[in-house]
Write a structure and sequence with these properties.
Length: 339
Amino acid sequence: MTTLTAGGTLLGANQPADRFYAGGERIAAFRGDGAARPHTPEDWVGSVTPLFGEASLGRTVLPDGTALADAVAADPVAWLGEEHVAAFGADTCLLVKLLDAGQRLPVHAHPDVPFAAEHLGLAHGKTEAWIFLEPADVHLGFTREVGEDELARWVSAQDTAAMLGAMHRLSVEAGDAVLVPAGTAHAIGEGAFLVELQEPTDLSILMEWDGFAIDGAVAGHLGLGFDRALRAVDRRALSREQVESLRTARARDGGSLLAAAAPFFRAERVRGDSVLEAGFSVLVCTAGAATLTFESGDSLDVRRGATALLPHAAGVWSVTAGPGFEAIRCRPPSPADAV
């Protein structure tokens, strides 16, 4: 813990095996650490969250063999800061992933905080956001009001054409950031490669599973049954303007991204030489290389594909950037903006 609180630490890949959709090649190429295993499309970065139904799979293990969740619980102030702990306790309030969609993901949605609290006894739902590293197409939200019985029929019949036909299709460019409020139906398109920020849960309600390596009729409803689980889906019509408002187009400049996500998490793009305030952070280096220097005088070198975990106790830190350096800094919500 002493070394970690003095600065930051580089994290290796944390890719749960045998996921139900394809991918992983882009993560391996991005990280530069060899050939990808099949069906490892997610890299859980700085995670204190296990996969749904698992005790520890998905949680980050630090280089000394300590689970990050245990390290944070043992010294939450050093990791998260006094203000964060006063507002949230030892909850990091954040999960970050690299996601490589080797095939289109199924249509699904995530519950919001009230639904998760009432039906699952959890403090978090799963609002999420995507920051794209490569162009892609996504489906996001319904173009018209969808009836409760209609949605149930689509799911029962696995009528993918009807689901996708009732959803907005959005083409995104590298650098675009998209907020996905909990409850919103969505499906990330094949070929997407992105950094995902989300509330720290693994809660997904599958509306589609036909053709995927999962029995959605059993595993797609969080153990609640579809009669209850589908109540978490936002069936309202979204206008094209409302869907476009969820995107920060080509958000390549330095500074804050995803302002509307502030009650759930924060993201900022770091470019060039910078001085950054203290705070628990997951840093994903997306281009170039840089040296991070912390208040202790310790330093950490990062390059494209590196992910780093930075505790609050590292203090204010500076970036000495090489040519073309860019990174995404992912953070919990500010206590002032908390839900």
